[in-house]
Amino acid sequence: MADEEWESLKAWLVGYHAIDSAVSSADQVRRLDLSGRSLEVLPDSFALLTQLIALNLSGNSLQTLPESLRSLTSLSNLDIRRNKFEVLPEVISVLPLRSLNASSNNISDASVLSGCHDLRVLDLSSNALTSFDGCLSEDNEIRTLNLSLNFLRELDSVYPLFKGVERLDLSSNTIKEISGAITELEEIVELDLSDNQISLIDETFYTLGVEEVDLSSNALEQLMLHGLEELESLSIDANMLSTLNMMEGFAPYLRAFSCDGCGLDTLVLPESTALESLCYSSNDISIIPEEIGRYTKLGQLDIDGNNIVDLPNAISNMTRLQTLYLGENPLSEEARKVVKVLHPDICDINMKSGIIIEEATMDDITEMAGLLSLLFAIESDFEIDLEKQLAGITKLLKYEGADLLVARHAGNVVGMITMQRLISSAEGDYIGQIEDLVVKDEYRMMGVGSRLINKIRFMAQEYGYKRIQLAADMANDNALEFYSRRGFHRTHLVMYHYRPHA
After folding, report:
1. Is the per-residue pLDDT at 345 higher than 60?
2. Structurally, how many domains does the chain consist of?
3. How far is it, in rounded angstroms, from Cα 34 to Cα 48?
4. Distance between CA 196 and CA 191 in Å, rounded?
5. Among 44, 212, 358, 369, which one is least packed by beta carbons within 10 Å?
6. Does 458 reside within a domain?
7. 3-state helix, strand, coil in the chain (%, to 5)
8. Rounded to an integer, what distance in angstroms lies between the CA atom of residue 99 and that of residue 122?
């Protein structure tokens, strides 16, 4: 009977190209990838796979898992992201899981996790959680926890269960305050609280031994930064700050600080001389102090989009500087002379006169299709097909509701962006859908992408669009950071594709 069950399961697995037909027994199956197969159920005969270590079921239509999975006593890695789970299945509580990815479902109940005592990595992002109470046991082993893109308002009651958590992502929830309970995070190294509604921070927060903190896109109006003696990276982008102060001794080992779009008129310099990256773009700053020269390790300085006329001579002596963003400032001729002392490849202002942003024409479609191939090579949801890309670009150019821009240098297309007009029932009016932002490798880090997206945003404003939106590959960290720093916020929506059969 067992042999018959195995032959049936084997045929099923071979049919889905999950195993090779040469596999002779269930014990030989250690890892299975059944992602993107449109599965709605799993066969009970999965119980035969007792040596299975890793199981990838992502991108299907599963709503539950069979109880027979209890027999998978070796399973340590389970991926069920992008399915249709509303409740985590009970069987998960008896599996010896070390890693569970259940992101991008519609889960509102994760209480079965209280039985997962061996779990170390847990991803529940992009779900429907309003509370995390009762989801972890006191003796849990969680080290990496992602609860982003849910509907969590506060976690004070469960912070004591996060004592061993080293990496915690709480971004894109509805948290309004960092309370004193945050000190329960005794082992925290990375903490992401961006895209919440935080307006208050308890003083105990500054005693944490955390190394990386993201507080961008919150409701902070005043910040008196102090303590955080182990901090190496801090982002407070997109908070409309009326005041920002840094006390003596704040983050003595800080390497990266970003304060993009905070409405500040003064550039406040961190005390740390270990600083490698400093961003104060899109503020109202007019003066860069000479003291900036003390950052002898600074490799990236972003001060574009301010009111800067003059630059201190100290900048010309910053020999470690690899990237300098100065665009959209009314720089004087003397300031430009300071910039010329630097290597010309590191500064976007040196490229500004040579790169033109303009509307695409039919003469550009071949180069644009080539750029799309670069984009699709790093986005897993798309495949490279030059003929299809040519056809798509051609139709977009002819479509009245589309805008296509190119960045041109020395007569060649080096970057592009497209936007289509849509009607939103939620907004009751037109919105813009941005797509296909890509820049050639050799022209990146020169402000080309920023200029493309700034131009398309200006056009959307001129058209009166109520909103502009875009989609980005979840695995493309560089793109996600790029969009976040330019005012785009992640939503709770998950994008689905369906291809109707002919």
Report:
1. no
2. 1
3. 16
4. 13
5. 358
6. yes
7. 25, 20, 55
8. 6
Decide if 439 contacts 415 (C-beta within 8 A). Answer: yes
In a domain, 334, yes or no: no
As a whole number of angstroms, the distance between CA 131 and CA 108 comes to: 8
In this structure, are residues 317 and 293 in contact, taking their beta carbons and an 8 Å threshold?
Answer: yes
Predicted pLDDT of residue 347: 59
At 398, is the secondary structure helix, strand, or coil? helix
Sign of CA dihedral 357, 358, 364, 366: positive
489: nearest Cα among 174, 47, 224, 24: 174
Bridge-based pairing state of the strands 402-409 and 412-424: antiparallel
Residue 216 has a pLDDT of 94
- pLDDT digit string (tens) for 72-126? 999 999 999 999 999 999 999 999 999 999 999 999 999 999 999 999 999 999 9
Q: Please report where in the chains the tokens 């020395």 appear, as a residue.
A: 410
| Helix extents (H) in 353-447 | 365-376, 386-398
CB of 58 closer than 8 Å to CB of 34: no
CATH at residue 472 = 3.40.630.30
Structure tokens belonging to residue 240 = 């409309």
Q: Which amino acid is at 85?
A: F
- The angle subtended at Cα 40 by Cα 35 and Cα 23, nearest 5°, is 50
Beta bridge partners of 144: 121, 167
Q: Which two tokens stand for residue 402?
A: 């589309």
Domain of residue 385: give its range. 355-484
Cα three-residue angle 371-437-476, rounded to 5 degrees: 95
DSSP three-state, residue 103: coil
Query: Rounded to an integer, what is the distance from CA 326 to the centroid of its chain?
Result: 25
Secondary structure (3-state) at 406 = strand
CA dist., res. 396 & res. 56, Å (int): 37
230 within domain boundaries: no
Sign of the alpha-carbon torsion through 283, 240, 244, 159: negative
CA 495-500-502 angle, to 5 degrees, is: 160
Return the beta strands (E) in 425-489 as ranges. 429-439, 468-470
Asked whether residue 308 is assigned to any structural domain, the reply reads no
